[in-house]
Design brief:
Elements lengths: L1 E6 L12 H13 L7 E6 L3 E6 L3 H23 L13 E2 L3 H17 L26 H7 L2 H8 L22 H11 L2 H6 L5 H13 L4 H8 L3 H6 L4
Helix pairs in contact: 1-2
Length: 242
């Protein structure tokens, strides 16, 4: 059993993995495979990355991910007349070695949209969570439901906020050196005055988002922007750069 967080080349990818045609391109390969060959227990498409929880041998997994990433990249490049990398690097996988961690990772994947500030519940159109309540198209749901004791227990389990450490997409992104706080704040103050940054949390959404995008492009980390503005990291993460 493995958990795969896969990161998009964010500065070169203006659309969303969760766009309908992007979703079809990403999930077409696993949907067309026999489930007994590589059953998928959870998946979630975010703006700039996606997660899979899957059971497969390494050769099958490598072939499957090659198909998924190649299929999406070809579809994306054709739609947007784009050239260059769509993904940051080859996928990485995290082994899942016991039942408790298996359930934890599934919940973590389904709670990604909540933690990013996109939704308030796990019901999210671009994840496997809803497939547990309906006829699944991609997801193998029987094992998880059996382990938890049915759909009611499954929902209750997901109502609990997951605090366990799980391999997230930040762990697979190429590391960049962050600015020291003093330099970061000086950059911010050259762009905007202190009063505006202090009050931007209560500004119109368009003004807030434009300001946050400029701070991100200036090289400030999510933590530094949060300290300057009081805006939560989930919102900051979800705001697109210009």
């Amino acid at each position: 059993m493995k958990h795969l967080p896969c990161d998009g080349a964010r500065r070169r990818t203006p659309d969303r993995f969760r766009e309908r045609r992007g979703q079809e391109a990403l999930l077409g390969a696993p949907a067309n495979r026999k489930q007994q060959d590589a059953p998928i227990f959870a998946w979630c498409l975010m703006d700039n990355h996606f997660h899979l929880v899957i059971q497969a041998s390494l050769p099958v997994l490598s072939l499957m991910m090659q198909q998924i990433m190649s299929q999406y990249a070809s579809s994306f490049n054709m739609r947007h007349q784009h050239t260059g990398h769509v993904f940051n690097q080859r996928f990485k996988s995290e082994p899942i070695n016991d039942d408790s961690y298996f359930l934890t990772v599934v919940r973590y994947v389904h709670q990604n949209p909540i933690k990013a500030g996109i939704t308030k519940t796990c019901f999210y159109p671009w994840s496997s969570y809803g497939e547990y309540f309906d006829a699944p198209r991609i997801t193998s749901t029987a094992l998880i439901l059996e382990m938890l004791g049915g759909i009611g227990a499954f929902q209750s389990f997901h109502d609990i906020s997951s605090k366990e450490k799980v391999l997230d997409v930040d762990s697979v992104r190429p590391k960049t050196r962050s600015l020291p706080d003093e330099e970061a704040f000086n950059r911010a103050f050259r762009l905007y005055n202190r009063d505006l940054l202090r009050d931007i949390k209560g500004a119109e959404r368009s003004e807030r988002d434009s300001t946050i995008a400029s701070l991100k492009e200036a090289g400030l980390t999510f933590r530094q922007i949060e300290r300057l503005t009081g805006i939560g990291r989930g919102i900051i993460q979800n705001i697109k750069t210009h």
